[in-house]
Amino acid sequence: MSSDQTVSSDPLDAAKADYQAGKAAFERGDYRKSVQYLESAKSSVLPMSRFGGEVQIWLVTAYEAMGQRSDALTLCRELSRHPDAQTRKQGRRLLYILEAPRLTTRPEWLTQIPDLTNLGDGDARDRPTAATIASAKQPEKPAFQLEAVVDPEQVNVKDNRFVWVALGAIALVLGGLLWFM
């Protein structure tokens, strides 16, 4: 093995690299690549180990994001019987979420997010610039407006004796407490 070689001979190192690449791809929204990396990492580790369980938890999430619900449910059911207690707990929680009934929503409640998976690194012309973002965020009206100024003569400044009644009630309660002591 030469020093120029970047691929490690240790399968655990390769699995960790695939795992990190899969997580990064998932966080970028590239779920297809995330599934590929995480499946590669899963095949390189012991599935019943703690790290194997962690890889599989991420794989369940990536499957669900890709729309592969049946694969996500199958793997999640396996994880709910995992030997590691933490992985088993997470697997059960995910299974509970995945098996929950879907809520119906109205289209006007949702915000459409464009699919950027086919957008390559060289397609910079399609990306929004700071100028286009700033022009899209023009408010219709000022964020803060002062209400009409209130005439001081219309404000009720007379003493309504509430403070004195409250102080008297407090004095009576304290006096009663002292009496019972």
Automatic annotation (TrEMBL):
The keyword Transmembrane helix applies. The chain crosses the membrane at residues 162-180. The keyword Membrane applies. Gene3D superfamilies: Tetratricopeptide repeat domain. It comes from the Bacteria. Keywords: Membrane, Transmembrane, Transmembrane helix. This is Outer membrane protein assembly factor BamD.
